[in-house]
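Hi all, long-time lurker, first post. I run a small reading group and we've been trying to get comfortable going from sequence to structure in the token notation. Rather than ask abstract questions, I figured I'd post a concrete chain and ask someone more experienced to write out its structure so we can walk through it together at our next meeting. Sequence below, copied exactly:
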Amino acid sequence: MTSYALGKAFLDRVAKEPLYIQRNARLLCLRGNHATNVAVLDGDEVLGYITDYSENESGAVAANLNGHVLPEICTTLDEALNVILG
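-- Answer (accepted) --
Happy to help. Here is the structure in token form:
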């Protein structure tokens, strides 16, 4: 898997066009509704979110923890997916 650097530019790009990532047996879709929040989906199931933090960092949180814990700060997509998928 190619790991992408996170941050504002990544979130802006995904907000314009969904990104599909193969992760083990799953085909994940990263889809943004605006440049500060990207949903990580497996089919119709929301697994987690990647959020805006800084120019070169983003927050990651599993969907079941969203609103209960602060997002973990990550610099790469691989790190964020590790947080979201456990």
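A couple of things your group might point at:
The mean pLDDT is 91.
The longest helix spans residues 8-16.
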